Amino acid sequence: MPFELPQLNYSHDALEPHIDHKTMEIHHGKHHAGYTSKLNAALDGTAHTEKSIEELMQSMDMDNSALRNNGGGYFNHCLFWNSMSPNGGGKPSGTLSDAIDRDFGSFENFKDSFSKAAATQFGSGWAWLCVHSDGKLEVCSTPNQDNPLMPGVGCNGTPILGIDVWEHAYYLNYQNRRPDYIEAFFNVLNWKEVQNNYQH
Ligand code: MN3
To answer: What is the CATH number of domain 20-200?
Structure first.
């Protein structure tokens, strides 16, 4: 089965003023749609077609740039849309909050660490909050459309939260002010979904 562009759980203008309508429209409707169709084209006629997107990431041939870039782009944006909500913001609760306190010392320390990883990723890429198989949390970043599920990239944990720091994610509203965009992301951050990802 070909991969499909997922529907958003909110309208393109629902994250205003933090993430603007036009950016969401182009980012989801053009960029993510483009990764989706190019991923399907890269998979067409190959034995990879039966794999889930997670299996595709974990077994990635890093020399296959079409599959790496478009498969990564497909997976990363699916996680990204679910990481945001018009009812987002605030702080995590429950077991995720406990794990953040344990592994970062405090929510504020986690936020600093994640924001710094996102702000200092040179050029295009992503910052992640990952969970390792022993439950330990770690922040890392990756270039382009790579992600930590791919072999030898990032911290090799499972990403449960990701922020896109490609300029297409923020340039219309924030121009070169990436740190302002990162701060705004925390206002729409869907901690309930991140908590779900953590438990899985
Ligand atoms: Mn993007």
So the answer is: 3.55.40.20
